[in-house]
Specification:
By secondary structure, the chain is an alpha+beta fold. About 25% of the residues lie in helices and about 35% in strands. The strands form 4 sheets. Strands 6, 7, 8, 9, 10, 11 and 12 form a 7-stranded antiparallel beta sheet that branches. Strands 1-2-3 form a 3-stranded antiparallel beta sheet. It has a two-stranded antiparallel sheet with strand order 4-5. β2 and β3 form a beta hairpin. The N terminus is likely disordered.
């Protein structure tokens, strides 16, 4: 690699090196001398000194212009279509091993970026929530203060089941509007109708909190298959000094 002819920055680096070393007027030039880079001092100093390979490379990579070029090149990296197909096939095998549903969505990770691969019938909202209506129910959608009774099955990105009310043997009962549900889950169930079934793909920003004290250990997409069974009205009941909420 020809370091001298590649950039003016090497010459400026020579000037920075010789400037503090002399009080007389001096200038610098850079040229090749064997396997070393030579800074030749002009003016009345009439001298030269050599910079070894390591120092030359340090000067080369310390140059702001070249640093910007290298960083810009690294930022333009994209996923090769062949690699994407390979990742899709690899993820599918993992999902099959985890006994995920046949039409389970696929997730391709590239650093902090995640590409969600779904059929065309999925809908993506401005919030980032992705969903598919498997079955549309009938009746009115639930409102704040009402209680929703529903079944669900939760999965992680690899299709592993993480929770299920079907296995627990009883549906979940939650009142809307008091932040008892994961934000993405509550958004997804609000416009469902009783008897409806929906698949929710919840992004990390709408998902549950993460950490050692929680069920989730990392920020990732969560998938929930939800079946809304019924919606109940709730009212507060007070008996003497006792007060509670009754939903029927």
């Amino acid at each position: 690699m020809e370091l001298v002819s590649s950039s003016r920055s090497v010459l400026s680096s020579c000037n920075r090196l010789v400037a503090p070393s002399t009080s007389r007027t001096a200038s610098a030039a850079a040229r090749r001398h064997g396997k070393s880079l030579v800074c030749v001092l002009g003016g009345d100093t009439n001298g030269e000194f050599k910079i070894g390979k390591r120092a030359a490379l340090a000067l080369f990579f310390a140059t702001p212009t070249l640093s910007l070029a290298f960083s810009a090149h690294s930022k333009t990296k994209t996923i090769n279509p062949y690699d994407e197909r390979r990742l899709l096939q690899q993820n599918k095998k993992i999902q099959e091993a985890n006994r995920a549903p046949d039409d389970f969505p696929n997730f391709i990770r590239e650093g902090f970026q995640v590409k969600v691969v779904t059929p065309d019938n999925y809908i993506t909202r401005d919030s980032g929530l992705i969903y598919e209506d498997v079955k549309v129910g009938t009746g009115d959608c639930p409102k704040d203060g009402q209680q929703v009774i529903f079944h669900y099955v939760g999965y992680n990105e690899s299709g592993r089941r993480i929770d299920s009310t079907y296995i627990q043997g009883s549906p979940a009962k939650i009142r809307l509007g008091n932040k008892s549900l994961v934000p993405g889950f509550e958004e997804g169930i609000r416009d469902m109708k009783p008897g409806g079934k929906r698949r929710l793909i919840i992004p990390p920003e709408l998902g549950p909190p993460v950490g050692p004290s929680t069920f989730f250990s990392a920020k990732q997409f969560e998938v929930f298959d939800v079946e809304l069974l019924s919606v109940q009205d709730c009212q507060r009941r007070t008996i003497a000094f006792y007060s509670d909420v009754v939903c029927t």
